[in-house]
Amino acid sequence: MTEDMASEDIRVLLVDDQELFRAGVRVIVDAQEGMHVVGVAGDGHEAVRAVDELAPDVVLMDLRMPDLDGVEATRRILAPEAVAARARPVRVVVLTTFDLDDRAAAAIRHGASGFLLKDTTPVQLRDAIRTVHAGNAVLAPRDLATLLDSRAPAREPVPAAFGELTDKEREVFAAVARGLSNAEIAGQAYLSESTVKTHVGAVLRKLGLRDRVQVVVFAHQHGLA
Length: 225
What we know:
Blueprint: E1 10-15, H1 19-30, E2 35-41, H2 44-54, E3 58-62, H3 70-77, H4 80-84, E4 91-96, H5 102-109, E5 115-117, H6 122-133, H7 141-150, H8 167-177, H9 182-189, H10 193-207, H11 212-221
Helix pairs in contact: 2-3, 3-5, 7-11, 8-10, 8-11, 9-10
């Protein structure tokens, strides 16, 4: 755990049990304009504490760590009660050496905004941090759907809250679940982008979801994709 710097930068927390890997990623992140590392953690327990102490915007979370792994740490960090207690949102990107990893799928269901392979390039890492900070996924919607479908638990009943969506909000929900941007939805539904943004906000609020990634997860969990 470490220091604070330019408050307007994207604040990044690195979580990995390998010190050499952490050091390498830290150099890459700190070299990017508009972001910096506020601290590091070597296991899941440290990660949970560091999120509360350092208030990062983005957490790069290793999945395979002793004691408390990245899946459980992600669940604790993004649990509804933990999210509600924070003054600012935090996004989690999981790091894995395996493509379409079972643990990555579990972490995404717990609220992670996607995953990166550990051999990703510095440019891809930089872009991923910016992408999740903006509330989007670092996995293409089609790939995210494949990941969730191929490792999906039994589908759950559709919550009553879904019935509270208006017809237009359901249309927007379906479009977001397919991975469409606000601009694409606006063109498809003959709406302004500001109106689409309002509908997306209503969908997230009524369903208790944090971001567009969770809309995709919700749709697949409940057979609404």
